[in-house]
């Protein structure tokens, strides 16, 4: 699953929600099949401002004999994503990927719970799509907790809505779904799940992940989370995207979100 | 009439006692331990690989956030996170030994004794072809002021490392000094086989929302194309003062950038931050240098080096 550099052609780049874009890229058939949770580094070749590539998780992927299609669902948060949002059909970008370690789905359990905050739904949507095609999980049920700030920020529900048996949309301001933070909504339901037959997957802003760690604190739930951090290289060389992780003996070290992650066991993350 | 096939120019350069296949090397801290880039390029085509800075003991590095993009570059305050010299020899060097490429170990310490011990261990390990001494780090005994900021201290580190090794010793200079040529002259006198410059320029950046620094460490090292003119100026100044080979580093993104450094007199160049945005940058730069030599009808890269016309 080694990354490499590919030229991508923009097939579509639509604003699907305020400040959220869906970019469809066509690239060479030699692009490796990504695992849900993996990401790509995107850059406009030769541009020095913004200078660095932008890490964006893969939302969807498909291939035929002639080309691969990579879908990226991203939110405009700064200069880099602003410029990406301005790309029109036919533009070219450099794609480095697929990168990082995706979600581990080798031993998913009876209840599969997904918790997302905002655009964090993107890698989970790909995970849900991938799990739904696996025969070994046919007896499992998929339960989704997608949280957003407001109705105007709701994005990425198309596939998950169809594939999850239980959808618990919530917003911070109550404009759609239940009112409250997604971690609070999940906390109300947590007794429905037993740690031994539940797998949890989460992705969202740092504050949400930290709150989730508190909700799951000292429980035996296993929760895989996909983290986000500023990155320079995406390949493990620059050591820029550090996250504090504790090992089995409890000793702290800095791991690289790009190449040791982006998926980590929530229990191992040290929050400051 | 026959059209002669273009012959490939000679690319080998000599860095003191060290012979390189070509003048394109990687810069320490931007290329991991080589393995990270093996999927993107053929490492054997590099002039040399300079590995991430090695300390005596493994180092945790600084707390995040560690990097911030700036106009035409980036700031980093990684804090020299590395596996330590022993783990490098046991876990990373075996891979590099299998490659047909010069391996240069970048070393650093917080005390003179650290430098001495790291140099000793690497000299005893097979597969290291030269040492590059990072003197930009803070000297614990000297109030944290960098070893590279004082000619006497820089010279002392150089002679300590020289005494411990028979490997060629390259001293990597910091630009955060009043007169880089005085440091270059001091380390040359102390026995350095070559100097490489520049390391990053100290900088900072402020978040307007929080009015806090973007980096947890507050300040960081600026790298990328933004620093190239400064680096080029310093390389040119040093080339005029020292007789040992000079390796040019700083914001090289393209073959044109690298050629500027060669023309002002750098015997070789190191490619750093460019690797982050384009993992194939070294190979594109190497190909571009060859093309330039062919177009200019220069048969040997050494005929170009130092041909600057001020």
Which key phrases capture this entry?
heterodimer, A: 272 residues, alpha/beta, Elongation Factor Tu (Ef-tu), domain 3, Rossmann fold, 2 domains, seven-stranded antiparallel beta sheet, B: 310 residues, TIM Barrel, eight-stranded parallel beta sheet, four-stranded antiparallel beta sheet
Describe this structure in words.
The complex is a heterodimer of chains A (272) and B (310). Chain A has five helices and 17 strands. The longest helix of chain A has 12 residues, at 121-132. With 272 residues, chain A is an alpha/beta fold. Chain A has helices at residues 79-85, 121-132, 158-163, 182-189, 206-215; strands at 4-17, 20-27, 39-43, 54-57, 60-63, 68-75, 92-99, 111-117, 141-148, 166-167, 170-171, 178-179, 198-203, 222-226, 242-246, 252-256, 263-265. Helix content of chain A is 16%, strand content 35%. In chain A, strands 8, 9, 10, 11, 12, 13, 14 and 17 form an eight-stranded mixed sheet that branches. In chain A, strands 4-3-7-1-2-6-5 form a seven-stranded antiparallel sheet. Chain A has two domains: 4-99, Elongation Factor Tu (Ef-tu), domain 3 (Beta Barrel); 111-226, 3-Layer(aba) Sandwich (Rossmann fold), CATH 3.40.50.80. In chain A, strand 1 and strand 2 (20-27) form a beta hairpin. Chain B has 310 residues and is an alpha/beta fold. Chain B has a single domain (13-62, 78-204, 223-303), classed as TIM Barrel (Alpha-Beta Barrel). Helix content of chain B is 30%, strand content 19%. Chain B contains eight helices and 16 strands. In chain B, the strands form four sheets. In chain B, strands 3-16-15-10-9-8-7-4 form an eight-stranded parallel sheet. A four-stranded antiparallel sheet of chain B has the order 5-6-14-11, with no helix packed on it. A two-stranded antiparallel sheet of chain B has the order 1-2. In chain B, helix 3 packs parallel to helix 4 (180-189), helix 4 crosses helix 5 and helix 6 (255-263) crosses helix 8 (281-295). The longest helix of chain B is centred in the C-terminal third of the chain and has 15 residues, at 281-295. Chain B is globular. The N and C termini of chain B lie far apart (41 Å). The model of chain B has no long low-confidence stretch (mean pLDDT 94).
């Amino acid at each position: 699953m080694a990354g490499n550099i590919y030229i991508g052609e923009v097939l579509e780049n639509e604003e699907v929600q305020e400040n959220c874009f869906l970019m469809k890229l066509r690239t060479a058939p030699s692009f490796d099949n990504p695992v849900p949770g993996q990401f790509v580094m995107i850059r406009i070749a030769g541009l020095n401002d913004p200078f660095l590539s932008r890490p964006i998780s893969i939302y969807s992927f498909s291939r035929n004999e002639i080309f691969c299609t990579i879908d990226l669902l991203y939110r405009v948060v700064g200069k880099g994503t602003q410029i990406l949002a301005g790309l029109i059909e036919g533009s070219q970008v450099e794609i480095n990927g697929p990168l990082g370690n995706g979600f581990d789905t080798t031993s998913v359990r009876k209840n599969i719970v997904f918790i997302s905050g905002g655009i964090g739904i993107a890698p989970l949507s790909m995970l849900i799509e991938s799990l739904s095609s696996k025969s070994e999980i046919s007896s499992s049920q998929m339960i989704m907790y997608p949280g957003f700030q407001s109705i105007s920020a709701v994005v990425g529900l198309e596939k998950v809505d169809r594939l999850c048996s239980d959808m618990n949309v919530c917003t911070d301001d109550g404009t759609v779904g239940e009112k409250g933070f997604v971690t609070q909504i999940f906390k109300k339901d947590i007794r429905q799940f037993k740690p031994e037959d539940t797998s949890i997957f989460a992705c969202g802003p740092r504050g949400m992940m930290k709150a989730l760690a508190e909700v799951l604190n000292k429980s035996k739930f296993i929760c895989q989370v996909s983290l986000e951090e500023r990155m320079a290289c995406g390949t493990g060389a620059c050591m820029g995207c550090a996250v504090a992780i504790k090992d089995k003996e409890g000793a702290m070290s800095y791991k690289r979100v790009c190449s040791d992650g982006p998926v980590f066991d929530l229990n191992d993350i040290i929050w400051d | 009439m026959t059209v002669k096939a273009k012959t490939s120019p000679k690319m080998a350069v000599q860095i003191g006692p060290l012979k390189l296949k070509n003048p394109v090397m990687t810069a320490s801290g931007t290329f991991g331990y080589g393995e990270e880039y093996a999927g993107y390029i053929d490492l054997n085509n590099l002039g040399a690989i300079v590995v991430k800075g090695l300390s005596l003991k493994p180092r945790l590095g600084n707390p995040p956030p560690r990097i911030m993009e700036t106009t035409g570059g980036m700031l980093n305050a990684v804090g020299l996170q590395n596996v330590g010299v022993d783990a490098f020899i046991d876990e990373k060097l075996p891979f590099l030994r299998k490659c047909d490429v010069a391996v240069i170990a970048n070393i650093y310490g917080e005390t003179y004794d650290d430098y001495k011990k790291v140099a000793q261990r690497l000299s005893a390990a097979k597969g290291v072809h030269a040492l590059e001494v990072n003197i930009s780090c803070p000297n614990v005994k000297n109030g944290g002021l960098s070893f590279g900021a004082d000619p006497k201290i820089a010279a002392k580190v150089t002679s300590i490392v020289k005494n411990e090794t028979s490997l060629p010793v390259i001293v990597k200079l910091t630009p955060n000094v009043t007169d880089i040529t005085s440091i270059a002259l001091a380390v040359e006198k102390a026995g350095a086989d070559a100097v490489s410059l520049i390391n990053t320029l100290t900088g900072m950046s402020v978040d307007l929302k929080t009015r806090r620094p973007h980096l947890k460490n507050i300040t960081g090292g600026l790298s990328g194309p933004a620093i190239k003119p400064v680096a080029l100026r310093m390389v040119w100044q040093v080339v005029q003062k020292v007789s040992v080979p000079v390796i040019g580093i700083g914001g090289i993104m393209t073959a044109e950038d690298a050629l500027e450094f060669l023309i002002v007199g750098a015997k070789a160049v190191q490619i750093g931050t460019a690797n982050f945005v384009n993992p194939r940058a070294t190979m594109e730069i190497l190909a571009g240098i060859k093309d330039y030599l062919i177009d200019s009808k220069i048969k040997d890269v050494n005929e170009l080096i130092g041909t600057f016309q001020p």
